[in-house]
């Protein structure tokens, strides 16, 4: 039987997209993988189509915006410059399986599949991906709903990051994705010692407006000398403006340090030097309210205690496994109150709980879900 040819499309910077990189590791076990995305060829791909960085993944041209404003969704499906580039590059190729990472490339995936099965991996609740941005909410959100309504029922398989988001897809589009968490491969690490007089907090991720990272800075300043905070931030698409504002906000404190970001695979080993991973994200939209992000699993594999707000999925796992603390809300005062009582011994208990849960919360379980999903789609296609 010939080796399956698998196309994986993700209009993201692939070398920084931890979810897609993990996905590629499994796909490479099962077939010969061609990738489409921004940046150089990633590990696991035998062939790669690099989308020029200046081509947007949404219809952000004058004609594209006019099409969105006129609510001509069918015309807008393939109107994004990056999508048109990929469509032209793939025109003469055929595949046995096409993977669509996120809703924005669903039409492209089905166009290039030429009847082959499509697996849609939905990294979040697509209709509210960026609803905090007015133009996105008015122009792009309806396109995302159109793409989901038209193409998700045609997919051979669908997946998403947690069960509450799967239920939203079921409610609105009649498909119930399987859950593939943003978990990391198991790491052979151990909890590092906790000093009696110092608790080392850490946060990693993108410096994106809406995640309220300034709350973290203000809370650490208010907590006093016993707490430090290191941040491993990737600048967002604002040219780094938000990150610079955070650096200015923290400038008066020598207990807050901005570190250079590290590659996704290196994060657990880097974070292992700290005591507690922190992420307080206010529920400003559905994806924030339901988020269960890569960084949560980075913290666990790093064997850290975890500090979060009452974010549904993160709170559930923190409480189930005894990983750390859940603030009563997202104000600076509530975040401070969740941490100020901590002793070094309590942090050691939390770090030991992360160690105990690391295997269960690793990618091993989710990789098995992907293998089953891909094999099922390929088998159905061959029948």
Q: Could you please describe the fold and organization of this structure?
A:
Helices cover 42% and strands 18% of the residues. It is globular, with a radius of gyration of 21 Å. It has 383 residues and is α/β, with parallel strands linked by helices. It folds into two domains: 5-183 and 363-382, 3-Layer(aba) Sandwich (Rossmann fold); 199-357, Glycogen Phosphorylase B (Rossmann fold, 3-Layer(aba) Sandwich), CATH 3.40.50.2000. The strands form two sheets. The chain has a seven-stranded parallel β-sheet with strand order 3-2-1-4-5-6-7, sandwiched between helices. A six-stranded parallel β-sheet has the order 10-9-8-11-12-13, with helices on both faces. 47% of the residues are buried. It has helices at 18-30, 62-69, 73-76, 81-89, 106-113, 134-151, 163-173, 213-223, 241-250, 267-271, 286-290, 294-301, 312-321, 332-339, 344-357, 363-382, and strands spanning 5-13, 32-38, 47-51, 97-101, 118-122, 157-160, 178-179, 199-207, 227-235, 256-259, 276-279, 305-308, 324-326. Helix 7 (163-173) links the parallel strand 6 and strand 7 (178-179). The mean pLDDT is 95.
């Amino acid at each position: 039987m010939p080796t399956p040819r698998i196309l994986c499309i993700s209009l993201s910077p692939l070398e920084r997209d931890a979810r897609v990189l993990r996905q590629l590791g499994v796909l490479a076990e099962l077939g010969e993988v061609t990738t489409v995305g921004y940046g150089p060829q990633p590990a696991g791909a035998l062939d790669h189509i690099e989308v020029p960085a200046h081509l947007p993944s949404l219809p952000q041209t004058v004609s594209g915006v006019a099409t969105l404003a006129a609510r001509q969704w069918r015309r807008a499906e393939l109107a994004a410059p990056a999508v048109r580039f990929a469509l032209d590059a793939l025109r003469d190729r055929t595949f046995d399986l096409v993977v669509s990472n996120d809703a924005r490339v669903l039409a492209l995936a089905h166009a290039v599949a030429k009847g082959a099965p499509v697996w849609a991996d939905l990294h979040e609740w697509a209709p509210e991906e960026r609803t905090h941005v007015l133009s996105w909410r008015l122009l792009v959100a309806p396109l995302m709903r159109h793409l989901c309504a038209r193409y998700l029922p045609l997919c051979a398989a669908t997946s998403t990051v947690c069960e509450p988001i799967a239920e939203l897809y079921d409610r609105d589009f009649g498909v119930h994705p399987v859950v593939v968490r943003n978990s990391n491969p198991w790491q052979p690490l151990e909890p590092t010692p906790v000093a009696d007089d110092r608790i080392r907090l850490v946060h990693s991720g993108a410096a994106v407006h809406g995640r309220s990272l300034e709350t973290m800075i203000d809370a650490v300043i208010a907590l006093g000398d016993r707490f430090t905070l290191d941040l491993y931030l990737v600048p967002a698409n604002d040219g780094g403006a938000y990150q610079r504002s955070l650096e200015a906000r923290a400038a008066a404190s020598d207990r807050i340090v901005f570190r250079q970001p590290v590659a996704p695979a290196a994060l657990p080993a880097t974070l292992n030097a700290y005591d507690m991973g922190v992420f307080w994200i206010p529920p400003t939209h559905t994806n924030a309210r339901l988020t269960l992000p890569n960084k949560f699993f980075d913290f666990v594999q790093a064997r850290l205690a975890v500090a979060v707000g009452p974010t549904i999925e993160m709170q559930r796992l923190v409480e189930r496994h005894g990983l750390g603390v859940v603030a009563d809300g997202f104000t600076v005062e509530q975040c401070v109150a969740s941490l100020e009582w901590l002793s070094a011994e309590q942090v050691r208990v939390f770090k030991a709980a992360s160690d105990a849960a690391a295997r269960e919360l690793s990618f091993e379980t989710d990789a098995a879900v992907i293998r089953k999903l891909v094999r099922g789609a390929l088998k159905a296609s061959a029948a």
